[in-house]
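hey can u check if this looks right to u? its 143 residues, i copy pasted from the old doc so theres a chance i mangled smth
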Amino acid sequence: VGVVKHAHHEFDIDKPGKDSFELRAAGATQMLIASRRRWAMIVERELDGEPSLDEVLRDLDQSSLDLVLVEGFKREQFPKIELHRTALRRPLLCIDDPNIVAVASDGDPGGAGDLPVLDLNEPQSVADYIATEITGTATGSGE
């Protein structure tokens, strides 16, 4: 499983004082840090606008992935599960977005129409929905 998350602001996963941070500050436009357990690459780039989901997906090694979960990119067209917290009292996005295939909520979201409503407080049920309805496989949660 791979995950793509959109950030609406400038972010940094590096820390001042670390060699990798200092090398980027000195002008490195690509910084790859690796150990025997993991690696991370930070690429400095200036875009005219936010990257599209397709552009970001090209950066993943999709040959080693069965599924990519995406957070954000809500204006993009792909199957989505809307996360809805009732205490925030925000309108449901599924009303205007035909790409939303289910709603995961911590209560009765009201207005979800015929869409499945998943319990946000039961992550296994959300995983089961994704495995069954999106990928067509089972998670083995009953084992």
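The beta strands are 2-5, 30-34, 39-43, 68-71, 80-84, 100-105, 117-119.
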